[in-house]
Design brief:
This protein is mainly α and 273 residues long. It is 76% helix and 0% strand. It has one domain (34-272). The protein has helices spanning 8-29, 34-57, 63-96, 100-104, 110-140, 149-176, 182-194, 209-214, 216-228, 235-265. It is globular and about 75 Å long. 32% of the residues are buried.
Length: 273
């Protein structure tokens, strides 16, 4: 039986289709890669669409309010983002350097490793948020330091939220391997538009508002904006944020412990040897 023959043009077409099909199989076997295809466009629409709705509603009388929301949002966002990315990428550094097996062979306990990475992350957070604060103060005359200790309490909640979300990322990497790295860079950006970082929750589509109210970040950002506007701490919002943060931390610790147990039982450590 002779094999079919193709001309140069047809051969090129089949080779191109073969490469496209090969990448389709990769996407089919790695659904987390859909993050770039589907999630980022949705995040962009929700984030910038909601900012536009909020800005339009304040166009005549609330220009200063819009500026306050944006500047406070940028500063507080970097608190939670730097906290999460420092711990999550700290573990990824171990996987990239194939050091996971070495760490597990030492007397180092899991919580000691997490606290060590978080401690170094605090240094990076201070540098990053400090730079943002200086720019906001110098370029826009917004004095964050003059807000007082209430803002520090809000920032502390966001710090813990960032660490808690990083635990979920570590758990995902333990379970699914380095292919789950996309969540380290992108998981918080899914939370961003739903948390009302730069606008009140009312600017979101009505369908998403109940989901936004569940997130502790939503109440933390709301409390931070209230304090930044010169008003007393809204203890109701702060209490909801604190309760949500405590629950998220417990769930994060439980999840990463569960994934670590599976990691050891199924021998996933061989991925990093």
């Amino acid at each position: 039986m002779s094999l079919p023959t193709y001309g140069p043009a047809a051969g090129t077409m089949w080779r191109v289709l073969a490469i496209a099909r090969r990448h389709a199989y990769v996407l089919q076997r790695s659904p987390h890669r859909l993050f770039d295809v589907l999630v980022w466009p949705v995040v962009d629409v929700l984030l910038f669409g909601s900012i536009g709705v909020f800005a339009a509603s304040q166009a005549t009388t609330g220009a200063q309010r819009v500026a306050l929301y944006l500047l406070v949002g940028v500063i507080l966002w970097h608190v939670v983002y730097q906290a999460q990315i420092a711990v999550a990428t700290g573990f990824l550094e171990e996987s990239w350097s194939r050091s996971v097996l070495n760490l597990m062979a030492t007397p180092l306990r899991e919580w000691e490793y997490i606290f060590g990475v978080a401690l170094f992350g605090l240094v990076k957070l201070v540098v990053g948020v400090g730079a943002v604060t200086v720019i906001v103060w110098g370029a826009f005359a917004f004095n964050v330091a003059g807000i007082g200790p209430a803002m520090i309490a809000v920032a502390a909640l966001l710090l813990v939220i960032g660490w808690s979300i990083a635990l979920f990322v570590i758990g995902l990497v333990l379970r699914f391997g380095s292919g789950a790295e996309a969540f380290a860079w992108g998981i918080l950006f899914v939370v961003m538009p739903l948390s009302g970082v730069f606008y009140p929750v009312d600017a979101l589509p009505a369908l998403l508002r109940p989901l936004a109210e569940i997130l502790p970040t939503t109440h933390a950002f709301s409390a931070g904006r209230t304090v930044a506007a010169g008003n007393p701490m809204p203890w109701g919002e702060f209490g909801l944020a604190a309760a949500g943060t405590a629950g998220l931390t417990l769930v994060g610790l439980g999840y990463v412990t569960w994934m670590l147990r599976i990691f050891r039982k199924r021998g996933f450590v061989t991925r990093y040897s």
